[in-house]
């Protein structure tokens, strides 16, 4: 049994530090491209104080509803906060959950950090939380995310046609899913 | 211009009255088959007073991005269910819709389809939305047919999302686009 659920080769997962990490995430919220890849909510820059408040609310909700696990992704080389990953909306009775991740600085993307983080969270989802399936949502224009999730074994299950409007064009919202039996456990090991 | 937005062929949509209607909702909540068609959350029973509070909370907290109606028959003004636009995403003109007919005497007779048609008209001609979305459980074939009649098309299925009595079922996503709805209803 592999006991190290949070240790990747180049990254590791930790709790979010509401004080230090808020400073960094506040910078990311000034990058509309990043936010539009992540969420359909209107882009809005946040101050470190607002981000800290968001973290505190997330913690409160996680305590209250017991259906979310939030992690910070840190680079092993310099312990830097480079992104977040979370397992949320866990549907305990049916064994389902959703995954979302973001790597904040464009210079940290395409380096395999996200891939390692996703491997860790999937192992956490299937081997620790014992889920039956994991879902992910992304947008038609986020082709990198679609490819990335497909490489991890996810299948496109739903295309909510034209559900999002960006720069005067409508795009599909894409829902992907991965079942326990499709997940490659071996790839979960570091 | 149609100024009778809330009236259909068999039913009308009306404001919910938490004080008077909570008892009906609480009664329907005891019908396990109904609840399992409606919701994936674990079945539970709550007192009428709490039902009333939850309805009030729902109306208050989601005022900006939801519209909750009750469904009443035109024939005798009987309260038979509810329909709700929820999670309206204004920047994208998208919303989800949920519908439930708690009164089993009105199942399979076109009442739900009629209520859905009214709420679609409201979504497209009053709220000016671009699409309406819903999800329906794989075992709810009656609802699936009703939604297709109202204009929804299947957009995909989340495989094996639900576990019911030891068996897994898909969650089916459906949507209707503004231009599809306008064409269907002979708008220019």
Q: Helices and strands of chain B, in N-to-C order? A: EHHHEEEHEHEEH
Query: Any idea what the shape of chain A is?
Result: globular
Helix count of chain B? Answer: 6
Question: Multimeric state of these chains?
Answer: heterodimer
- Unreliable residue runs of chain A: none
Helix percentage of chain B: 25-40%
Task: Give the strand order, joined by hyphens, for the main sheet of chain A.
Answer: 1-2-3-4-5-7-6
Structural class of chain A: alpha+beta
The major beta sheet of chain B can be summarized as: 7 strands, mixed
Order of helix and strand elements from N to C terminus of chain A: EHHHEEEHEHEE
Largest sheet report of chain A: 7 strands, mixed
Largest interface: A-B, 25 and 24 residues
Mean pLDDT of chain A: 95
- What's the number of extended β-strand segments of chain B? 7
The structure class of chain B reads alpha+beta
> What is the alpha-carbon Rg of chain B in Å?
16 Å
Rg value of chain A: 16 Å
Side by side, the strands of the main sheet of chain B go 1-2-3-4-5-7-6
Strand content of chain B: 25-35%
The percent of residues in helical segments of chain A reads: 25-40%
Low-confidence stretches of chain B: none
What does this structure look like?
The complex is a heterodimer of chains A (190) and B (188). By secondary structure, chain A is an alpha+beta fold. Chain A has helices spanning 20-28, 32-38, 48-65, 113-128, 143-151, and strands spanning 11-14, 69-75, 81-91, 96-103, 133-139, 155-166, 169-179. A seven-stranded mixed beta sheet of chain A has the order 1-2-3-4-5-7-6, with helices on both faces. Chain B is globular. The two termini of chain B are 13 Å apart. The interface between A and B is medium-sized, with 25 and 24 residues.
